[in-house]
User: What shape does this take?
Amino acid sequence: MKLFSYLAAAVLALLPLCSQAGVIYQWQATNDETPYGITLELEFDEATVQAGTLEYYFEHFNDERPPAGLLNLRYTFPGPYGVTWSLQDGGFESMLGYIDMRLSFEPDGFLRGSIYLNDSETHLYMESTGRAFTIVDANSDYEMVDAGCPWHKPEPCGGATGYIVRDGAELPGEVPEPATLALFGAGLLAAAGLRRKAVR
Assistant: This one.
């Protein structure tokens, strides 16, 4: 009986942690255009994803807390000055910044819409046509040479296309893993065997 009580107490203690877990979407590039090698991860609360749309505007000055809906975002670019923004740390390290997102959540796990991020030193702007996003401009006061975007480049640094997709969702044209194909094949063989037995 004591063991059951301990297990119940452990489950109750973990419930608040589970309730904080969000739904994660990640940038997946589909071409080899600038900026190269960036990462973008967005974490939303479940209620926002279920609602289907999000209009999110946040100006970060001093100690203001971001509004509900977006739990966290992480953005990095390659190189020694690659920045990481994390809303879980209260906002932007520079204490200045803007987030402007107009998004819709598709049932198949894809995002559509537009995203603008700017921490007064680094910015990223991307928008979608259908499910595919294009990076319109990405740059930084720091060098983004490893991403193909030096700060003195006269034209906007962009062109990379890709998807922002929920963890676990399949990308268009994705080839199933060999293990998945093997399992599918085994299932077909088993079904054929059962049918042969039924015919006899």
Summary: The radius of gyration is 22 Å. The chain has a mean pLDDT of 79. Helices lie at 2-20, 46-51, 178-199. The CA atoms of residues 70 and 156 lie 27 Å apart.
